[in-house]
């Protein structure tokens, strides 16, 4: 029983990380139709921003305090990178989807190369609060405390994004711009500015995912964002391209399947199981590749 509780808790925590990584990807594609392959570079930028910020703060600060400041820095850097990328590279290519893919893939590769050139290819250890490194006894299982943090952050992010899209004027403008951009512009609303905000929000979510994943891994590395991006894409496709709620459900399913398969089958089978799950979903519901709304 304790083993099952541990697997479910760790799978849920991993799924929460996947959701945080995939939420920005889903938001950008669902509302703007942009398949952002540079999302992994955004996550890497956030991870390194947090690592540099934590290292620059006084060593006598509590690790929790430095981590909070690092998270703020990661979110800000992710949002800034997303804003610049949208304005400079994506905005001229909104009607040219193939060029969008080529540009974002090239930016992803350039981001990895830049990180390797500046900080090297080896992982760099990042400080982790003592409480997050510890465990809590639940139903006889020793659950890692950091999983509680990931689940909490994912829940807050999910609720915040849904509230933004459905309860605010900005969300109304965003959804209206997706449905009928010409009409919204005729009303005097700057759709370009609104879409820039969406891209910045996606970048902020990516920066948050980058720093939390570095806490999960215990280090930052140039290829970290790319490896997380693979699972983020799988989650988005399984949940329905652009569906925020579907992305949340798919993230939990992927995290649980991966953990259960690794334990009950063999180490490494979890990744294969996730790919098989993706294949089954595409066979049974090929509309997953089409856009949806939150």
UniProtKB/TrEMBL annotation:
* Alphabetical keyword list: Amino-acid transport, Cell membrane, Membrane, Transmembrane, Transmembrane helix, Transport
User: InterPro entries, per this entry?
Assistant: ABC_transp_permease, BCAA_transport_permease
Membrane-spanning intervals of the chain: 6-30, 37-57, 63-89, 101-119, 148-174, 195-216, 228-256, 263-284
Name its cellular compartments: Cell membrane
The superkingdom listed in its UniProt entry is: Bacteria
Q: CDD domains of this UniProt entry?
A: TM_PBP1_LivH_like
| Keyword Magnesium recorded | no
Membrane topology annotation? Multi-pass membrane protein
The UniProt record lists the keyword Transport = yes
Which PANTHER family does the record cross-reference, listed alphabetically? ABC TRANSPORTER ATP-BINDING PROTEIN, BRANCHED-CHAIN AMINO ACID TRANSPORT SYSTEM PERMEASE PROTEIN LIVH
The entry sums up its family as follows: Belongs to the binding-protein-dependent transport system permease family. LivHM subfamily.
Q: What is this protein called?
A: Branched-chain amino acid ABC transporter permease
